[in-house]
Structure formats: structure tokens, C-alpha cells
Amino acid sequence: MMKSPRLPLYMTMATFVLAYMLCIWEFPSMFSSRVVANLLTDNAFLGITAVGMTFVILTGGIDLSVGSVIAFTGVFLAVILRDTSIHPLVAFGMVLAITIAFGAAEGAIVHYLEMPAFIVTLAGMFLMRGLAYVLSTDSVPITHEFYDVLQSIYWKAPGGGRFRLIGGVMLLVFIGAMIVLHRTKFGKNVYALGGGVQTAQLMGVPIARTTILIYATSGGLAGLAGIVYSLYTSAGYSLSTVGVELDAIAAVVIGGTLLSGGTGFVAGTFFGILIMGLIQTYIVFDGTLSSWWTKIVIGVLLFTFIMLQKVLAWATTARRKPATEFAMRS
Amino acid sequence: MMGGTLRRIAPQLIILGVVILLNFIVFPGFFSIEFQNGRLFGNIIDVLNRGAPVALLATGMTLVIATKGIDLSVGAVMAIAGAVAASVVTAGGGWFLALLAALAAGLACGSWNGILVAVFRVQPIVATLVLMVAGRGIGQLITEGKIMTFNDPGLIHLGAGTILGLPTPVYIWVIMGGLITYVVRRTALGMLIESIGINETSSRLAGINSRVLLVAVYLVTGFCAALAGVVVAADIKGADANNAGLWMELDAILAVVIGGNSLLGGRFSIIASLLGALIIQSVNSVILLSGMPPEFNLVIKALLIIVILFIQSPAVQHAIYLFRASTPPHAPNENGAKNNQTAKESLS
Amino acid sequence: MSTTPEPVLQATGVSKFFPGAIALDDVSLSLYPGEVHALLGENGAGKSTLIKCLTGAYKRDAGTILLDGKEIDPRDPQGSLALGIGTVYQEVNLLSNMTVAENLFLGWQPMRHGMINNREMVKRSKEVLSGFGLDIDPSQLLSSYSIAIQQVVAIARAVELAGKVLILDEPTASLDREEIDLLFSVVRKLTERGLAVVFITHFLDQVFEISDRATILRNGRIVGTRELANATQTEIVTMMLGRQLEEAKKERGKAVIGETILELKNYGRRGTIEPFDMILHKGEVIGLAGLLGSGRSETAGVIFGSTPADQGTATLNGEAIKIDSPRSSIHLGFGLCPEDRKTDGIVGDLSVRENIILSLQARRGWTRPISRAKAEKIAEDYVKKLDIRLASLDMPIRLLSGGNQQKALLARWLATEPDILILDEPTRGIDVGAHAEIIELIQTLREQGMALIVASSELEELITYSSRIVVLRDRRQVKELQGDEISIGAIVRSIAEEGGAQL
Q: What is the ipTM of this complex?
């Protein structure tokens, strides 16, 4: 049997299908387009964030600042739309430029100052959350007709599910990320970096550019997630999306991406998001279960997938040894 | 020996001095201490008191980071420990039993992390992430999602009481920090921990039982986190599993980093980390006393980390090294160049 | 085939100075299209420095390099690759988390409509690799193939990208015979295409098997270049070693062998080393000889317990023992100086003093610390005894030179007063002075009644102090030489005979 890097991905997919079937078995009403549509809508911002996180983790890094970036984006948009007459589309452009530049700066610090991504993005997390506070400590509602227009776009599926714009944006981001990761040189450089920085450098991968681009991507996607979140909640609040970075990391890991970098798929992250959304939906349907079970179940899933990856790693090294032994004896 | 320690913590002392001076500038009454109702009041006392949880966490975190690890779960462990203490005390157990139960919970969490790291060889950041995510849920499970209040005077005393005029938490973190420093430096533990943090393979081949040491280090961190959790819960007379210790793991890591300890493991100083915790608390105090909106707290903290990290980053350190190496006229050129080589090698 | 008038690469008068040492002194080298040119010399002769100067990894201090008659000055390996010089190292420098095709084409993937054309990439990979005699599925992960195949993929990448000169830096060190055959057939195909190949290795038989010419380096200088068709192994070895060979032979003293201390029966570890028997006496040195990867270090590791044996029995002073970790063997009085000083030996940021007492402290346990004063005394003792040169006992050990680091590691073990000391390549990569001192130390320790096991690739050194020599090949013991049987010739023959049998 050949070692397949897709095995964890298949496991995640199987877990989702199995979990969804169990849910339907217990609550047949969960089998509806409404549930599916809500799954996409409710997790749109998290999904977009997790795509950026997948890129970062694939290179062996981590980005703790994404939750704060989302909050900052929301507050920034809310304040700008309240205090000025700038069109939301222009504001979107501005905030994306800021978040991309912010991510790029983080990447530059990680690369040029040779500091652990963990601590750099931790500082970034404080900075963005702080800037959000500085802009406003209150929840600022967003009322703009353009927002109403965007929020009213949906496709009503048979069965009553409303597939809204933001869910569509998330799907587009996932598809775009897959294309970038698998069909562009940049995408391959991401994997190369995760396989080993020194080797990648020897093979001619532009380390500095790739690292900076990666964190810029993560920052930009967090900005996009912030826009989506502001559409979702119609408000900007500096205390919102606390801990989203953890959820994003969890989704990436449950999706089968190795936290040490180099191995993983965006598609896995998508199913990771769906699994986490499914847990919440189940708890809502059940009605008696408390919300903290979400955290515990996600923790258990994290543990399971981490151990699964360990076992797979052991199995492959164990499998290779006898192979060389055989070659030597023959 | 003393001189060495002093030299080691000099940067932290200077930073602390500057921040305290800033405190004094924005609020001239910073140093005034009053004695009322058998208790000392004053901003200095507040810094020492409020710094307790981070100082406790930083004590354990220093050891974990020295082994090239990290413990993201300490905040969640605080929540669990607070919840356990509260539930024991509300169920009628005494404060001492509650404390013991909370500490036991902390040790259990520590051994979970330690076994994942040392036995299953899971990266520390990943291993402790599990408990970071699930721990708060477990805490809420214990308190059933409510803020579980209590009014046991013994337990409350641990967080809000005073001994000889000083708040109890001050004693707790000073004694804990002192005790652990004493133990690791008076035995060979400190050196052995540094050794596995610098090069685990070499250490194992030299006969060091790295597995046991790693588990022990996570146990200590769990213990410290549990103590911090009890202090925080006792202070607000209730266990709030949702918010207790929220993001405190990051403050603790920051304290360790400000203390000049490398995140890449190796040489460590608990005293420097404790000073780091006090620096963080003093910065909070400046912001509060200056009348600046507390919103700026995080921005300033972020800028502070960036500056400190910048100074400590290998690239800048290397530049400083080169600068220093080029200044003394008598330094043999060869040595300088050779050391550069080594410095570069150790970077790669 | 061997010499056409126009060299593809010509290096003239290349020199490289390191602080306090001349690594390369006026070295010249010509490479002709279609030749395999071996670069020979002992460790530290300057082979890898020369390569690094050619590829731009080091900045040379003097000399010119002409490629196709034009002067070049590559600044890094990337630059030299673009010019046409590709390098493949002993450790495969490819990405094991990516597929074979992705590795081959990283950075120059075939594109269509602005996107990577994966199908085309796999197709072309298959073509390229079949040109190297490999029929594998390039869409599989690189890590699912053996090291030899990975090595060929690395060569294929280097050749596809460079195409003029291919430098092979010890590519066969971790390969077995069949894999070497595969590699050599690839090299032959390349020379037929007109590529010039530089081949660096420690294995003389391989040199004669594949190379047309050989340039021999010693102490950073060229000793000479020979057509291998009319050269003998002895001639080459003499050029490599200089006069040392005869001197070394003279020095060999008689050992006074004491009683049996360690007896291993059917001792081994699956996949690491085939079961072997060994009897070690007090006051003797058993030398472990063999090529790299033959099982020398593995034998040392199994005895010491860093890779514990999973079969066989061990008796120490007549009592059955079980060694399952370095910790257990250290308690029994074993010590091991590992081959890779940097990754397995020193604890870089700890002081020299702490490094010296580390094992002693580990054995005493953490509750019984060695006091500062006592540690100082132990360290000072050994610094004096072994003549370790340092500025202060408090300096981090990583700042010491290789030889002094090695001596400090020896001190670490001597401080535990071991009964059995295992040394794996004790003289690798250290300066000449320290080299002689360590050999002397081994002899002194033996005379004092310690039992030693020494693994070394430097045969002339091994025969000076060993009372018995165990020859290994393919991870098993193939021969034991004693007394007058011991000579470099005999060792080389037993390695080679086995090799012959394998062919």
C-alpha cells in the first residue's frame, strides 16, 4: 500500500458523513436544505479565516491574529460607514488593503527577524484587538442600504433553505484556494516551505516572498472574513470573534492538515468547518445539551485527529524499515 | 553567583524601573501606601496583588519554555481549577479540601499535557491546544455554565484576604516562585531542564531521563495554573469558567519572553519571568493611572512586545554581536569570525 | 572518451582561508565533458571546501573558475545551478512531503493558461526518469520511495536544471550495493550525454569502478591527478595518506589484555544490526571497521542502548544485564562518545563545565547535585589532563573548536569513570594536534585497564590502538582480525571480499 497524504482528508470526510447521518437518524428534520444553508451561512466567516490559516499552517507557521483582525475589520467598517459617506465597496477595499498590509508586515517580521510566528502574531493579535478598542468600545450598528442589498441576495432552495451571499463567498474562497494551492507556483512553494525551509531554499524557492505572501493572504482573508462577519451581524464590535483563531486552527487540524506543516488540503479544512458547525447544529436541535459540549467535543476531535496523524506517521516509518531491510538482503 | 543573577536580570530591572517611574510621573501618589483596617493600600500593593495570577503562571511557563515547549492550556486549567474549588466548597467541603481538589485537577491536566508531549511526542503547541479548547468546556461542565459563587471565608481569604497587612496572593506567588527557583537551582533540576531544552538527543545520550523531566515540568505548570485559578476565583468569590484566566496564557508567555527567556528553550530565569509579570502589571497600571482609556492597554502592550521581541530577535542579536565584536581593539579577529560562524550555524 | 581538449570547467589557483587555517591552497582542477572525476582525500583535506567554492556556497579568496571558457563567479548554489553546475548531496535535499514530479519541477513547472499543468508535469517526469532507468509513478510522494530512488530524482533535477557539470557529494554513503549499481548506471548514462561528473566519496573501490580520473587532495593542497586506468589502489591511498601509513604501523604496541568484562551473545536489533557475538576484555580496544553505513555506529548504539538490542543476551562481569536505554547502560558503567558531536554530543548552550559533569550528574540523579566547587574541580582536572583549550569553564561549549569539544565530551565520560567506553569516530573533523592527543589518550586508557570499543573510518588510526578489529559490512560482522593479522590491507580485503561475494 502506498502512503497516501489524502488519508486524513478521507477520514475527515467520512467523519462528517457519518456524523451527519447519525444526526439525521436522531433528528430526521436535520436532513433539509435549511440546515445545510445555515451551516454555510453561519460558518462563512470562520471558513474564510480557516482557509488563510490553512495556508499559514501548511508552511509550518501559525497566525493567532486572525480573530482580532476580524473584529478590527468589523469595527472599522462600522465606524467608517457611520461617520463618513464613503461607499461600503470603497471601505471594503480600504480595510482589505489594511489587513493585507498588516499580514505582510507580520510575515516580514517572521522572516527577517527570524522570530517564531507564534509570538509575532500574538503581538499582532493584541495590536489589532487594541486598535479595534481604540476605534470604539461599543457595538456599532451598520445601517446602509448597500448592506441591505447584499444581505437580501440569496437563493432559495427547495425545502426552504436560503443560500445567502456570504456562504457563496466562502465557497468561492475555498475553490480559489484549492486552485492557488494546487495549480500555481505560489501554492507549490507553500508546500515546499512546509517541507523544510532550508531544502526549499536550496531548491530555489523564494523564501522571503513566499513567507510574506502567506501571512498577507491570511491577513487579507481575515479581513474578508471580517467583511462577511459584518454582513452577518450588521454591526462592528471590538469584543466580537474572540478566540476565532482557535476555532480556525481546530478546523484546520480536524481537516487533516499537519500542524508541523507540509501536508494537508484546503478541502479538509472545509469539512473540518462543517463538522464543527454540525456539532453546534446538533446541540441546537437537541435543546437539552449545553453549549459547552461544543468545546469539549471539538477538543476530543482535535485529540483524535492528532493521535490519528501520529499513528499514521508511525505506521509509515515502520513500513519503510522492512522495505530497506528487504532490499539489502536481496 | 549573585553577581551573575543580577547581571542576568538587569534588563528586566531597568525596564521595570522605567515603567514604575512612568507610573510615578503620571500619578505622583503611586508610591504612597496607607494602612487601613489592618490592610495596606496603595498602587504598589495593587501591582503586586494583581500581578499574582500571571506571576504564578509565568513561574511554571518558564520551565516549560526552557524545555523548548509551551503550554497553551494554563488559562483553561485556571478555569477548571476555579470550578473544582468552587464546587467542592459549595458542596460543603472545607476550603483546604477545595484547594487540594483544585491542585489535584491542575496536576491531572499537567500530566495529560506532559504525557502527550513526553510519551506520545506530540508537539507541545498542539498537545496543549487540545486542553486549551476543551478545558473551558470542562470547567463549564463542572459549574454547569453558571458563575458558581461561594462565601467560604477560608477560600476567599486565598484571593482577597491579607496576612500581616499584605494581600494573600502576594505571598502565594512570591513563595511559589521562590520555592520553585530554590528547588531547581539547589538541585540539578535546573541544569537538566536547560540541557533537554537545548539538545534533547544529546541529553538523552548523556543519560538524562528527558521523559520524566518533561512530564514533571508540565505537572509544575498545571500546579501553578491551578493555584492561579484558585486565587482568581477566590478574589471574585466565584468560579466563572467562561472568563477566568481568559487569554492569560498569552500574558504568561509574554512575561516569560519579557524575562529574556528564549522561546527556543535552554537557559532560563524564573526571577526574570516574575519581573516580566510585574512589568506587564505595571504597564497596566500606567495606563490606568494616566487616565488613558483602557482601550489603549492592548495597543501599548502589543507595541511593548514588538519592541522587546525586536531587541531579542536572533537577527538583531547577531547585529549587536557583530557590533560588539568589532569594537574592542584587542579582540583577536580570528575568534570573532569563528564565533560568527558558530552563531550562524546555531541559527540554521 | 577521457580527455577531449576543451575542459568544460577549469578552476585555477583556488584558495580559501579560514581564520587560523588555510582550507584550500592554490588548487586547480579541470573537468572534461563526459568524464567522471573523483575528488579524493581524507576528512579535512579540502574536498568539500573546494566544492563549496565551485558552487559559490563559499566565497573563494583567490583563483578563477572558467565554465566553457568564460569566467564565472556564482554567489550561491542557486547561481551556479543557473550557470549549469548542479550539486547532489549525501542527504537528499528534496522535499519528502511532495510528490516526485513536484520535486522534479519545483520552480519551473510546465504552465498552461497561467496554471500548473499537472498532467504534463507527471508525463514529463516519467520521461525524464525513464531516461535514468527509473520506472516509477511520479505522482506518488517522494517519501514513499527508497533513498536511492530519491537520490536519482535529485540527480535528475540537478541535471535537468544544470546540464553541464554534476557534482555528487558522497551520494553513496547511505546506499547499499544494489542501489549503488542503480546510481552508477545513471552516472554512466549522463557521461554518455557529455556531462562532466565530479564524484566525491570515501570508498576507493567505487572510485575505481566509476571514475576516469581522480584528483587527490591533502591538507588543502593538490597532491596530484591520476588517470585511474593506469593507477593502483595502493598508489592512490599513499597519495591520500602521505607517509602516515608506515609511521602508524610502527607505533602499534602490544596490549596487555585482562579478564573478560562484557560478553554479548547473538546480540542484535532488527533492521539495525544483524545479531553478533562479542567478548570484550579489560585493557583492550576492539576496533570496529567498515564503510560508512556498514553498521559501525549501529553496533555502538546497540551496545550502549541508544538503539536497544531486541535479541540476544549480555553479561557484564559474569552477571546477566539488560540494557534498554543509555540511562541503564550508564548506570552499569558504559559510556558512548557519539559520531555526530553537534547533534548527539554537546549541549551547545551549556557551559563547558556543565557539559563535562552532565553524565555524572544524570547518573547521580537530580536530588544530589554536584556542588559548584566540585564541578569546577572535576572540570578543571580534565581540562588539564586532556589539554582542553578554552577561555573559561563558563563559556558555552559550542564556542570551542571541534577538537576541544571532542575532548570535553571525552571528559564527560571519563568523569563517570566508566568500565567500558565506546567511541564512535572520535577523531572526525578535528585538528591534527587534537587528533594525535586523542589517539594517545585511547592508548593510555587501555593501559589503565579500561575496555574500549572504537568505531572509526580511519583505518590507519584504528590499527594503532586496536588489539582486535571487527570488520562490518551491510550491517553485520564479517570478520574478526587479531594480533599480526591486523593490517590495513587485511581490513580492506575483508571489506572488499565480502563486496565481491555480493556482486
A: 0.84
